[in-house]
Design brief:
Number of strands of chain A: 23
Helix content of chain B: over 70%
Strand content of chain B: under 5%
Largest sheet of chain A: 6 strands, mixed
Number of domains of chain B: 1
Strand order of the largest sheet of chain A: 7-8-9-4-10-11
Number of domains of chain A: 2
Oligomer: heterodimer
Structural class of chain A: alpha/beta
Radius of gyration of chain B: 22 Å
Structural class of chain B: mainly alpha
CATH architecture of chain B: Orthogonal Bundle
Distance between the termini of chain A: 25 Å
Number of helices of chain B: 9
CATH class of the largest domain in chain A: Alpha Beta
Helix content of chain A: 25-40%
Number of helices of chain A: 19
CATH class of chain B: Mainly Alpha
Number of strands of chain B: 0
CATH topology of the largest domain in chain A: Rossmann fold
Largest interface: A-B, 25 and 15 residues
CATH superfamily of the largest domain in chain A: P-loop containing nucleotide triphosphate hydrolases
Shape of chain B: elongated
Order of helices and strands of chain B: HHHHHHHHH
Radius of gyration of chain A: 26 Å
Shape of chain A: globular
CATH topology of chain B: MetI-like fold
């Protein structure tokens, strides 16, 4: 089920000569107080209707450069040099009045966080009307008609009702659609989308982006799409700009850039994309290490004085088994119950029904098998910024894991901590450092060290790499794979990111609404998904196929019929 | 390390001076603060009596210094008592949840609803006005606030993944509480304790002013201020200097508190 991309992107040739819509030349931004350049010598030209992507890791200055186009850079940042011209007019010289007319009216912006970019205390209708009132002179009835029309086009089922609703009544994806509607209502000539879908699930992400493209295409709006997600950018843009540490390292037409990356950093970025590894042999004759039978977890059920909330069933009878040395991945959207499953297997959530067996013994807290299980089951958490105690040095954090189980002397403990730090690629001196002195990737290495220092037989990894930058993500993922092979622990790998799963898992379990929809070996799931939901999940993530020159080709997978065809 | 701010320097100097004066007064004062000298009644500030004398000829500077000892000592003990009690309660309620939490917090909120000084007045009329009575009364009056702050901190910390990580390692709840939760509550606690020090000092002075503080003839800033009212037209310095001491002490503590807050806990600026 693979087909080449290109259906979405139009391959039209833009008239680059003459009137560029946006011309940025040599833009340099500095943080005034510490005199640090965050964007250096940034130049970009955008033709009307063109879709350009800016890719870079966090701290590359991509957002700052985009914000500067609307003069929305934070007060601490000042423009050191360069010019920004929108439609031939110098943005930097514009008086506030003209600038305000340009913002929203000519240049629209969609932000990352759909939960905070809409005003929670305003009804959707009046929120959308605000821009029209400000920028267009049209009668009330006409405004209403426009808003209803736009809400219908972004896929709201009942636009009339939505006018009177508040943002909290909608899901994140819906809110981002509404945000998009409010921006596109004014038919801007340039849309800046700063990580517009990073906070959304893969499937929703794709829907929102497809919609964005459709709307901008019909209006002839140029789009500046900013993201750290290279496959996503590659799928939607005509041209890509790669940024690193405030500088543009490479720029080119999407296909050409992917196929023959020139700069080493671009190659590094492309190499950091997860790829499928060779299939490993798992002995299926041995009894499973961990077995979950008909697990049910109910949340809530608050008993108030007068009322009684029914609560929510997070898991509805999930059965699963993990064999020794096997890496089982659980994938699903947020709310599918995958994290709850991991947490209840880790003993952090009390199940309402069903059983969890470890080596054949029940491991409910307090039971006979529990202490042994507690020693042998460890967990790696998602957020490396919250999973380490900020007041305790790294060494002590890891040593703490050695309090239980076999008694060790202080010297033995110390030696073991140094050893495991070495295994995760950190030098011994890290033992004395505090978490805030470490980068996200280093923190996650420490979290892995803490989980593995006791040599557990079973590790639960809950989205261990989703908070990390792409290149760091690859390193941590490689580390995890290497350690898994060396120590041979079984692993339950929870992730929403199918591409990561493809690299690391032996077996994949797809979850939805608290139940398993499909289960099978990695290759079976990725190459021949049977369930329509699995196919939808897969279609949301394009994959990159490597070529010998260090470049890649974008390959769609899953159900290609969903792809929207656009007029070229 | 950043340079200490002006607030920090100024605050620390003032607080240091007052605490220093209180410490010195424990062993030495220019005159005996209780010694009467009827030949030098209501003497204006001079080389002999730097800040003048009161209606009984007692040296005002010596009395102010001795009063500082009392005030600082009462404030420290009160703050320590309420921090200890409040932290224990806050940890328990934040960690237990359920009915324990509800009942304890119900009482806590009821106490919190009273103005501190009113609660202290009521309690003092029961236990009687002496130093330990004041500490008990003010301590009880300010404990609910500490409980609230600690409970809030515990509730937000409990959601952090490092607390779960500790549970996954097999650590007991009490170990996790002492090792991971408590140390992370310390920053807000220090900030709170500093502010409380000022509030307690003011409350203690107010109680003394109302005649419910440490009984005379022991000097306190509050009772000195109260006594000075009779002589305000003849001997203004009797009122000015105790008043100045109270204002300066509060200013110093608040400056120091603000500086500590900026340093330790930028999220608590609204407190």
């Amino acid at each position: 089920m693979r087909c080449a991309t290109g259906l979405i992107r139009i391959c039209g040739v833009f008239e680059m000569s003459g009137a560029g819509l946006l011309e940025i030349e040599g833009l340099t931004l500095t943080v005034s107080r510490i005199d640090k350049e965050v964007v250096s010598d940034f130049s970009l030209e955008l033709a009307p209707g063109e879709i350009v992507g800016i890719v870079g890791e966090s701290g590359s200055g991509k957002s700052m450069a985009a914000r500067a186009i609307m003069r929305l850079e934070p007060p601490a940042v000042s423009r050191r040099g360069g010019s920004i011209r929108f439609d031939g007019k110098d943005v930097c010289a514009m008086p506030q009045r003209v600038l305000r007319r340009m913002r929203g009216g000519d240049v629209g912006m969609v932000f990352q966080e759909p939960l905070t970019s809409l005003n929670p205390s305003m009804r959707i209708g009046s929120q959308l009307e605000e821009g029209l009132k400000l920028h267009r002179r049209i009668a009330v009835a006409e405004r209403r008609r426009l808003i209803l029309d736009m809400l219908g086009r972004v896929g709201l089922r009942d636009p009339e009702a939505a006018l009177e609703a508040y943002p909290h009544e909608f899901s994140g994806g819906m809110r981002q659609r509404i945000m998009l509607a409010s921006v596109m209502l004014l038919k801007p000539r340039l849309l800046i989308a700063d990580e517009p879908t990073t906070a959304l699930d893969a499937v929703v992400q794709r829907e929102v982006l497809d919609l964005m493209l459709q709307l901008t295409r019909t209006n002839g709006t140029a789009v500046l799409l900013i993201s750290h997600d290279l496959p996503m950018i590659a799928r939607y843009t005509n041209r890509i700009v790669v940024m690193r540490q405030g500088r543009i390292v490479e720029e080119g037409a999407t296909d050409a850039l992917l196929e023959k990356p020139q700069h080493s950093y671009t190659r590094q970025l492309l190499a950091a994309m997860p790829r499928r590894t060779a299939k490993r042999g798992i002995d299926h004759s041995v009894p499973p290490l961990v077995e979950v039978r008909d697990l049910i977890v109910d949340y809530g059920g608050r008993k108030g004085f007068l009322r009684r909330d029914p609560g929510k069933r997070a898991l509805r009878g999930v059965s699963l088994s993990i064999r020794p040395r096997e890496v089982v991945a659980i994938v699903g959207e947020s709310g599918s119950g995958k994290t709850t499953l991991g947490r209840s297997i880790a003993g952090l959530v009390k199940p309402s029904g069903g059983s969890i067996l470890y080596g054949g013994h029940s491991i409910l807290p307090g039971s006979e098998g529990w202490p042994d299980y507690r020693l042998n089951c460890q967990m790696i958490f998602q957020d490396p910024y919250s999973s380490l105690d900020p007041r305790i040095p790294i060494g002590a954090t890891i040593t703490e894991a050695l309090r239980h189980g076999k008694a060790l002397s202080a010297a033995e403990k110390h030696a073991r901590v140094i050893e495991i730090l070495g295994e995760v690629g950190l030098s011994a001196e890290f033992a004395k450092r505090y978490p805030h002195e470490l980068s996200g990737g280093q923190r996650q290495r420490v979290a892995i060290a803490r989980a593995l220092v006791r040599k557990p037989a079973f590790v639960i990894a809950d989205e261990p790499v989703s908070a990390l930058d792409v290149t760091v993500r690859m390193q941590v993922l490689d580390l995890l794979t290497r350690l898994q092979e060396r120590h041979g622990f079984s692993c339950l790998f929870i992730s929403h990111d199918l591409s990561v799963v493809e690299q690391i898992a032996d077996r994949v379990v797809v979850m939805r609404d608290g139940a398993i929809v499909e289960e099978g070996s990695r290759d079976a799931i990725f190459d021949g998904p049977r369930d329509s939901y699995t196919r939808r999940l897969l279609s949301a993530i394009p994959t990159l196929e490597g070529n010998p020159e260090g470049g890649v080709r974008l390959v769609e997978r899953g159900d290609c019929r969903n792809v929207i065809e656009l007029p070229a | 390390m950043r340079l200490p701010s002006l607030n920090a320097v100024l605050g620390a100097t003032i607080v240091g001076l007052i605490v220093g004066a209180g410490l010195v007064a424990m062993v030495w004062t220019p005159y005996d603060p209780l010694k009467l000298d009827f030949l030098a009644r209501l003497a204006p500030p001079s080389a002999h009596h730097l800040l003048g004398t009161d209606e009984f000829g007692r040296d005002v500077l010596s009395r102010l210094m001795r009063a500082a000892t009392t005030s600082v000592w009462i404030s420290i003990l009160t703050v320590c008592a309420s921090i200890l009690a409040g932290t224990a309660l806050g940890l328990v309620t934040g960690y237990m949840r359920g009915w324990t939490d509800r009942i304890l917090m119900m009482f806590n909120d009821a106490l919190l609803a009273f103005p501190g000084i009113l609660l202290a007045l009521g309690l003092l009329s029961v236990v009687g006005a002496n130093m330990y009575g004041i500490i008990l009364a003010l301590g009880l009056a300010y404990t609910p606030l500490v409980t609230r702050v600690v409970r809030g901190a515990v509730l937000s910390l409990k959601e952090k993944e490092f607390i779960e990580a500790s549970r996954v390692l097999g650590n007991s709840e009490s170990f996790t509480m002492v090792r991971h939760v408590l140390p992370n509550c310390i920053a807000p606690l220090i900030v709170l304790a500093t502010s409380m020090f000022g509030w307690v000092l003011l409350a203690e002075s107010a109680l003394s002013f109302l005649g419910l503080g440490v009984p005379p003839p022991a000097p306190t800033w509050g009772n000195m201020l109260a006594e000075s009212r009779t002589y305000i037209s003849q001997a203004a310095w009797l009122g000015i200097f105790p008043g100045l001491c109270i204002s300066l002490a509060l200013l110093g503590i608040n400056l120091l508190g603000d500086a500590l807050r900026d340093r330790l806990d930028p999220h608590m600026r609204g407190l």
